[in-house]
What we know:
By secondary structure, the chain is an alpha/beta fold.
Amino acid sequence: MLKSIRNLFRAKPESPSASVPDGTRYYVIGDIHGCNDLFETLILAIEEEAAAAPHLDVRVVLLGDLVDRGPDSRSVIANAREWQRRRRVDILAGNHEEMFVKSFKDTKVLRHFIRHGGRETILSYGVSEKKYNNADLDELQKLMRKNVPKDDLQFLKTFEEMIIAGDYVFVHAGIKPGVELENQKRDDLLWIRERFLEHDGQHPLHVVHGHTIFEDIDVRANRIGIDTGAFRFGRLTALVLEGTTRRVIQAVETDGAISVEKKETLV
Length: 267
């Protein structure tokens, strides 16, 4: 979903007062959606910064939707797992991970999954286009069970629903307005859209989320949306939080070349 004209009349951003715990730096990464080249570029940029700040407790949060739509979901999962072995990397479940996991047992979910980018995920696991195109849903499930390693599937099941850091809460899609964090439902955390996006009031904590695509980071008085459309616009975003400061690192693809762009201040 792209920004619409109604956003012009929504709550405007204000100077940040929210903060993360002293001595920590958080890199919060938006929806990767199978764009492994962008992901690898962002990992290198973050690790370069982390190496220059050994005194800080550097933590990474992936906001979910690692898979689907882009060409190499399998490699994204592999890189996320490897990164976790050498750094504190917490990963949230997105609605696309939920569809992927459930599609192994439920053909109705599988049908929905392949309509929303699941085809690319399945192909990334070595299923040929010919086999994919000739398979019915039951046959496709068998191909998935044969080609997707059980370790990858188990890894996806470990993803969290919510992470809190100081005055921030990180979720995939958003939270249901007016409901305390401990009472939020998984369905809202992974799928909510308009009811959350259109809410101008304050939340229990400042929300950082993905799920809804914006051409640029959507900074509001009560939330920050950082899904900048890696698969659609070629831009993968990491929001960097340290103390009360906010800045941005992005891996950007332009005419087939990938570069790193940084914004040193973000209101």
